[in-house]
Amino acid sequence: MAFDKKLLEIVACPVCKGTLEYDKESQQLICKFDKLAYPITEGIPVLLENRATALVTE
Predict the structure, then answer these.
(1) CA-to-CA distance for 14 and 49, rounded, in angstroms?
(2) Under 8 Å CB-to-CB from 26, ≥6 apart: which residues?
């Protein structure tokens, strides 16, 4: 099941309430402010802070 990009208009980061960006390659929603990535499972974003992974900055 593919992620519906229209959801980006209504979902927000559960930590900072900021906007999220869709990363199609890794199937994640990214919060650049908090440097967190939320997984998308079977087309459904899992917006739980304990399921987020920290983004590695290089």
Answers:
(1) 7
(2) 37
Q: Which of 22, 58, 56, 11 is nearest to 36 (CA)?
A: 56
Torsion-angle region of 4 (φ positive above 0: left; ψ -120 to 50: alpha; else: beta): beta
Q: What is the mean pLDDT of each run of 10 residues along the chain (58 residues)?
A: 84 96 94 96 93 86
Q: Tokens standing for 34?
A: 């908090």
Which amino acid would we find at residue 37? Answer: A
Give dist(CA 17, CA 32) in Å, integer: 12
pTM, full prediction: 0.88
